[in-house]
Design brief:
The chain is mainly α. It has ten helices and no strands. It has a single domain, classed as Hypothetical protein af1432 (Orthogonal Bundle).
């Protein structure tokens, strides 16, 4: 599946602008990690772009991810992409463990990208000047971006075998590259 095909599929299934932006952020982070971990940027990016494309229609587990996987397979999507999307959800781990770099990376970047977006939106300079120290401080405030699972961020860092600061820096760097598309440029 090409990136253009993936974008068209996303637009067919996702109406929420914030969900679309989240998936763009995850795509950017996945492309960044593909470069760092020796993966192919195109399928890694597609996995990030489509990881939640079925969420609006099937928000509840286990339909979320599994219904999307059926659609992706029917369209001939590479199993590496489908498996990564399935592995990012805990309810699929028996069949799709996080045992491959693409699967580890998708799980690791998903929640952190959401948290970084929330943090950027309350900063006057958005992503400019954002760094690990301020993000880690915000992570200690349970009421801030309360729906983001901090334990998933921590587990993702462990899967990647990176220090938290490095992972935060990597995702910030990736997201800064598309800050305009994400609505995260300073006003």
């Amino acid at each position: 599946m090409t990136r253009n095909d993936a974008w068209n599929l996303l637009c067919e299934y996702v109406q929420s602008e914030s969900l679309r932006k989240h998936m763009l952020a995850v795509e950017a982070a996945m492309r960044h990690y593909a470069t760092l971990l020796g993966g192919d940027r195109d399928p890694w990016g597609v996995a990030g772009l489509l990881h939640d494309f079925d969420y609006e229609r099937w928000p509840n587990p286990p339909e979320h991810t599994r219904e999307g996987a059926k659609i992706l397979r029917a369209r001939g999507t590479d199993e590496e992409i489908v498996g990564a999307i399935l592995a990012h959800a805990d309810w699929n781990l028996d069949e799709y463990p996080r045992d491959r770099p693409i699967r580890k990376a998708l799980f690791a970047v998903d929640e952190l990208c959401g948290f970084l977006t929330a943090a950027a939106l309350i900063r006057p300079t958005r992503m400019e000047g954002m760094g690990p120290a301020s993000i880690k401080k915000k992570m200690k405030t349970p009421s801030f971006a309360a729906s983001v699972k901090r334990e998933d961020i921590t587990a993702g860092v462990e899967l990647l075998g990176l220090p938290l600061d490095t992972h935060i820096e990597n995702c910030i760097s990736a997201m800064k590259g598309i800050a305009g598309e994400l609505g995260l440029l300073p006003p």
